[in-house]
Specification:
With about 375 residues, the chain is an all-beta fold. It has three domains: about 100 residues, Immunoglobulins (Immunoglobulin-like, Sandwich); about 90 residues, Sandwich (Immunoglobulin-like), CATH 2.60.40; about 130 residues, no CATH class. Helix content is about 0%, strand content about 40%. The protein is built from one helix and 25 strands. The strands form six sheets. Strands 10, 11, 12, 14 and 15 form a five-stranded antiparallel beta sheet that branches. A five-stranded antiparallel beta sheet has the order 16-25-24-23-21, with no helix packed on it. Strands 18-17-19-20-22 form a five-stranded antiparallel beta sheet, with no helix packed on it. Strand 8 and strand 9 form a beta hairpin. The longest helix is centred in the middle third of the chain and has 4 residues. The N terminus and C terminus are likely disordered.
């Protein structure tokens, strides 16, 4: 994508109907190719796909010499030979023509009747995502957007494409060299491996099963930064390596909570983490205590305004059973410090998605002290 502002959606189709008089049927011994279909190759610009892939049913016949592919740019033009191939697929580079069909040529040079005609109709593109929001993370940005492309055309939806470029904070302008961050079927994506303090601009498009790319969502800029807030944890069933969390691991063995020992994200399958994120068959997310001596309880019977609302760890029995993670809710974790004293941590879940959640956390470094203080992180 070479520009952050896209032109209005172009329509390749000028007319769908194809007159049978447009197709000349040469004499041949082979039957016409069947089930011709196509797939658009997205480029980031819905008006300029990078190419087209045609597919049709293969045949095993000693009489088959080659497949001939014909196309035309409008219904007022005649079909012309676009190319030949010995494979039952054909790649047409660049912006595709309006209509295509295929014939089978036998060893004597006779052509079959034409296959079905496919019409490339850009009006089949899905809706663009109607909104795009972001959450600032440490060396990453979490993006969420409206799922209207899927909900309005469930059977025709394939995936979302996420793009990014540089962002000029002073000029309030996105850059012009866009890069594909990745694709996802969920209306959420974490753009990682970013540099803290360097602004980025993001946009999202929707891809149909035919490969048509929608216009982009509204653009969104964000700047990653180090923080004890907005930590992303994936469900263990989705990405085990980043589904576990430990408030403090005494790496130096000095009993002191050093900056590099706090707020550690790791494998949800590890046995030395405080809790993992689990997703059940219904898609609900849970915080599951893992390390021996660790328990978790909700801080209140509903959402809390902020992490700072969790001021004192309740003097109760903490359960080792998994607890559902709900947006806005706060949770207190009691864990063993390995020195005979309990340690207390707090989390507030800010986002629960289909594959990951985002939370804020705090940890009390004083052994046995239930007062939870925000900001004891690096």
């Amino acid at each position: 994508m070479r520009a952050h502002r896209l032109a209005p959606l172009a329509v390749f189709l000028t007319a769908v109907a194809c007159s049978s008089t447009d197709v000349v049927v040469p004499v041949g011994v082979l039957p016409p190719p069947t089930n011709l279909s196509y797939e658009i190759e997205a480029s980031g610009n819905p008006n300029a796909p990078s190419g087209l892939l045609l597919r049709w049913d293969d045949v095993s016949s000693p009489n088959l010499s080659v497949w001939q592919v014909y196309s035309r740019g409008s219904t007022t033009e005649s079909y012309r030979l676009r190319g030949s191939t010995t494979s039952s697929t054909f790649h047409d580079n660049g912006v595709p023509h309006l209509q295509y069909y295929v014939t089978a040529e036998d060893v004597n040079g006779g052509e079959s009747a034409p296959s079905n005609v496919v019409t490339i109709d850009q009006r089949l593109a899905l809706q663009s995502p109607s909104s795009l929001t972001s959450t600032t993370l440490n060396e990453a940005v979490a993006l969420t957007w409206a799922d209207n492309a899927y909900t309005t055309a469930t059977t025709r939806f394939r995936a979302y494409r996420v793009y990014s470029t540089s962002y000029d904070l002073d000029q309030n302008l996105c850059g012009t060299n866009w890069f594909l961050e990745g694709t996802t079927v969920a209306p959420e994506f974490v753009a990682g491996a970013l540099t803290n303090g360097v602004p980025r601009c993001f946009g999202v498009s929707a891809i149909s099963v035919e490969g048509y790319e929608s216009l982009w969502s509204p653009l969104r800029n964000d700047t990653p930064r180090p923080d004890s807030r907005n930590v992303v944890l994936y469900a263990r069933q989705v990405q085990d390596a980043t589904s576990g969390f430990r408030f403090w691991r005494d790496l130096n063995g000095d009993g002191l909570a050093q900056p590099g020992e706090l707020g550690l994200v790791g494998s949800g399958s590890a046995t030395d983490i405080d809790f993992s994120v689990e997703r059940d068959a219904t898609g609900a997310m849970f915080l599951r205590p893992v390390r021996s001596g660790t328990g978790i309880e909700p801080y209140a019977n509903g959402p809390v305004a902020d992490l700072t609302s969790i001021d004192i760890a309740p003097n109760i029995s903490y359960s080792s059973a998994p607890i559902q993670a709900l947006p806005g809710w706060g949770y207190v974790v009691e864990m063993s410090g390995g020195d005979g004293f309990a340690r207390y941590g707090a989390v507030r879940v800010t986002h629960v998605g289909q594959s990951f959640l985002i939370l804020d956390w705090a940890f009390q470094t004083d052994p046995g002290n239930p007062e939870l203080v925000v900001g004891r992180s690096p």
